[in-house]
Structures are given as structure tokens and as C-alpha cells.
Amino acid sequence: MANILAQEEFQKTIVSQYTDVIGEKLGGSIVSFSDEWFAAAENLIKPKAPIRDATRFTYAGAWYDGWETRRHNEEGADWVIFKFGVSSAKLVGCEVDTAFFNGNHAPAISVEAVQILNNGNSSDFDDDILKIKEEDWETVIPKTECGPSQRHFFARDGGETEKNYTHARLKMYPDGGIARFRLYGKVIPVTSASDASKKLDYASVQNGGVAISVSDQHFGTADNLLLPGRGHDMSDGWETKRSREPGHVDWVVIRLGAPIKIQDIVIDTAHFRGNFPQKVNIKATKVDNESEIQDAQWTTVVPDLKTSADKEHEFKVDNDGIFSHVKVTIIPDGGVKRVRVYGVKA
């Protein structure tokens, strides 16, 4: 069975500790679906919350910002197959949002997953998922009831899956509409033995980085810091509200994908021009258990240094320590697009 959590508990135990592995901003995508008569399946993985928008209507003047299938009321289920935006992940829970679907919402859902290893040909990779036999799909979240126009937070009974997966299938029984779907898991990079000695960005979500704690994310969420690329505008970075108190700072703590020896750190302020931080500093620590993070001893690896608009700031780190977490402090507030922490696995 699935554990049904309150929003606050889900935020604390799932969202802040894991990654939405199918999200559009991470590169997740729709591979296939059973039906999208009223509204497209691709809406499920949009990063922004669903809204009623008069410019987006598809049927009889009604507004749709989600996925909705035709009405059939038959035994069975409609479904969508997702490809993860990361190489693989162990799954732990999901959010199902039926916002604005009232009387036409999905009465129940389940989540299944499968692992398909990429042979290097992306087109073959996508074709392989369509050849998967029904019995090869493994249950992650069993069939669970949903209600109209609300957010549902489900966690797996027993925590993370033992296996890591590459694709997931959302089913709704028997038909209806879902506005958004978030699927959370622990990223497991698919690497070769030689990668262990390579310098990699261990803050990257694709290498297992997670923003586990943040002081404020009023305009843009901290998980954006770990995305690939430099983004398209300020909306896909991390930005805090304007502070008014003397001595104020904002900060984010990032769990690296593995304990590493840090060599270089990049703070990118791309697209932040009148709202970049005046200064930044970076500290690092190593803890064996994340519950110890509150009392951890932090080592300064980048002292207070000025930043500037729309630029990648590269800092060399001269420290032979092994670190599992970094804390980026911006002074006094502002926006940062990306954080890169390059190093070699310890």
C-alpha cells in the first residue's frame, strides 16, 4: 500500500531529499500514452503549478492545464509512459495533482516502473520501451484513490525501491483528468569504472546532487541550481526576496552526489543583471549521517568574494579535504542561476 502524507511531511521527507526525475525542466519526457482527447499528457510534467488560463482551451470553451482522456467508464486504465531526465533512479514517492478537475478527475492511480539500459542509440532506447511486456512493469505505488481538485502526496511503504529504473508508467482508473504528476527518487548515475577517477560536477542533479535546505526561494527554487545548461531566463534559477535587515544573508545547502575532493566551484549568475548577489561565500563539510548536518563543522573553501551580473564565476579550491555537502551563502540576497562543484570521488 502507499502511505498518504500531509503536504508539510511530504515536503520535508520527500521533496527536500529527492529529485523529481520526470520533470520537464530536468529533461523528462513523454514516450507514449493511451489517450489525450481533451488535454495533452505533456502538461503533467510542466514545472509551474496548474492554472485556469483563458488562452488555453481545447474543448467546448473549457480550460485545461493537465492531461484528460475521453470518457469510457470501462474496466481498465488510461496511462502515460515517462522517460526520466536522469540516467536512472530509485523511486520513493509521488505527487498527483487533480487541480481544476472536479467531476472529471481520475478516481484512482497507480505507478509502475521498468529499467531499460541505453545502448547508445537514443531512438532504439525509446523504441525499446514500447516493446516491454506487461509483466515486466513493476509496481512502485499500488492502486490508490484520488479526490477532485486537490494535491495528493504518496510515499512508498518501505522507502526507496531496491532497483533503479529509467522509465515509469502512470495509470488512472478508468479515465479522467490529472493536472500535474511529480515522481521523486534518488538519482543513480550510470557510470563506468573509469568515471571514478574523473573530475565531475557532483552538485549536478544528473550526478546525484540535491538541494536539501534553503533559507528562501521566493522567486525561483533552489533545485534549479543543479540543472544542466545555463537556462533561458531568470525563472529557471534560484532567487530570494529582497532583504531589508542589516547583516541579512541567504543560503542553500547542497548534498553532493558523492563525497569528493573539491577542485573547482562555479557560481553562475546568468540572466541575473540587476538582482545578482553582491558577494558570495562557500563552505563545505562531510557528514556520515545527514541528521548531523545541523551540528556539522563547516570549512570555508571560497571566502567572501564579489560577484557580477550575467557571468560564470570560477573559483579554485585549495583544500585536500573530503566533503559531502556544500553551503552557498549569497550576500545579502538575489539570484543565482547554477552552482557547479567539480571534484574527484574520494
Structural summary, described in words:
- With 346 residues, the protein is mainly beta.
- It has two domains: 187 residues, Jelly Rolls; 146 residues, Sandwich (Jelly Rolls).
- Helices cover 5% and strands 40% of the residues.
- Strands 15, 16, 18, 19, 20, 21, 22 and 24 form an eight-stranded antiparallel β-sheet that branches. Strands 1-11-8-14-2 form a five-stranded antiparallel β-sheet, covered by helices on one side. It has a five-stranded antiparallel β-sheet with strand order 3-7-12-9-10, with no helix packed on it.
- The longest helix is centred in the N-terminal third of the chain and has 9 residues.
- The mean pLDDT is 92.
- One of its GO terms (molecular function) is allantoicase activity.
- It is an enzyme of class 3 (hydrolase).
- InterPro entries: Allantoicase, Allantoicase_dom, Galactose-bd-like_sf.
